Amino acid sequence: MNIIEVKNLTKKYKKLKAVDDLSFEVRKGEILGLLGPNGSGKSTTINCLLSLLNFSSGSIKIFGEEMKPDSYDIKSKIGVVFQEVSVFEELTVYENIDYFCGLYITDNKTRKKYIEDAIKLVGLEDFKKFYPKKLSGGLLRRLNIACGIAHKPKLIFLDEPTVAVDPQSRNNILDGIKKLRNDGATIVYTTHYMEEVEILCDRVIILDKGKILATGTTDELKELAKIEEKIKVEVNDLDCKYIGEIKDFKNVDEVEYNWNMLLITYKKGKNNLFDIMEYLKKENIKYSKIFSERPTLNDVFLELTGKELRD
Q: How far is 101 from 147, CA to CA, in rounded Å?
């Protein structure tokens, strides 16, 4: 069953197409990663899905029904956690979660249970009576998530929920997201941290300039990489002569040397590591470390969207 079905979605701002003829679905019980550089159309797409923006053409169905601004029954089954933390400073942790949960759950007994479940999920048991200004950045993020999911929504939108948090809070948040999925929620997840995508997401959509560039599992997307292998060599004061010779090796696509680290990117080949080790030995070049790695999701992302900086 598809929880979200988007067909030919287009959103125009005068002559600019922020979203350009998008069609995709989100399946029940999966975590879909929605990726793209700044300005790619991710936020516009999500705002259209939530009926926070009017779109120019196309259709959106959620839970099999057409999504409209007044689709309150559908919206009651959706949880949203935006990147910007949105809580009330004058309310405690418990009171904040109670307020947002109370927008959907009116039965007091049920709401109390849901609040406790949300507090446990994000690990805020020791901070129920704290006010937001007393919380660290990581705790605030966890409170923000608890407020968005306390009413046990069937569909959850998470917009970069781990931005600027410490590793411990990030692990807590990622574990909580997995539990939400395991408990039956369907999740649309946006982030710039590719390692999170590999850990969490069942499928990925890569957007840029309002269009879908690629979609699939992380393994399927890695197959799109134009490079076959990357070899890194830690070597001090490598002469430019050797860098030039390595560039002429068979199958080498690119060579970079920065901060005593030599990075060789290969288009294909099976014995690349052996060949470079033999070359270093022949030229009597001493190195401290050498290792090989396959293309990453980050490599694919940069190949598809480009390496230039975005505002």
A: 7
| The model's pTM | 0.89
CA 152 vs. chain centroid, Å, equals 22
Sequence-distant (≥ 6) Cβ neighbours of residue 232 within 8 angstroms: 261, 262, 263, 264, 289, 290, 291, 292, 293
Q: What is the dihedral of CA 71, 188, 47, 45, to 10 degrees?
A: -120
- Tens digit of each residue's pLDDT (9 = 90 or more) over 200-238: 999 999 999 999 999 999 999 998 888 889 999 999 999
What own/partner pairs with CB < 8 Å and gap ≥ 24 does 11-19 have? 11/41, 11/44, 11/45, 11/48, 11/53, 11/55, 11/56, 11/210, 12/56, 17/210, 18/44, 18/210, 19/44, 19/45, 19/48, 19/55, 19/210
What is the CATH number assigned to the segment(s) 229-294?
A: 3.30.70.100
User: Which of the four pLDDT bands, split at 50, 70 and 90, describes residue 307?
Assistant: confident
The per-residue pLDDT for range 255-292, each reduced to its tens digit, is 999 999 999 999 987 789 999 999 999 999 999 999 99
Quick one: which H or E segment has residue 221? helix 218-222
In this structure, which topology does domain 2-222 adopt according to CATH?
A: Rossmann fold (3.40.50)
Q: What tokens appear for 9 in the block?
A: 């979605």
What is the DSSP-derived secondary structure letter of residue 132?
G
Three-state SS at 49:
helix
Q: Structural domain boundaries of the chain?
A: 2-222, 229-294
User: Hunting for tokens 């904040």 — which residue is that?
Assistant: 96
pLDDT tens per residue across span 32-46: 999 999 999 999 999
**CA 70 to mean position of chain CA atoms:** 29
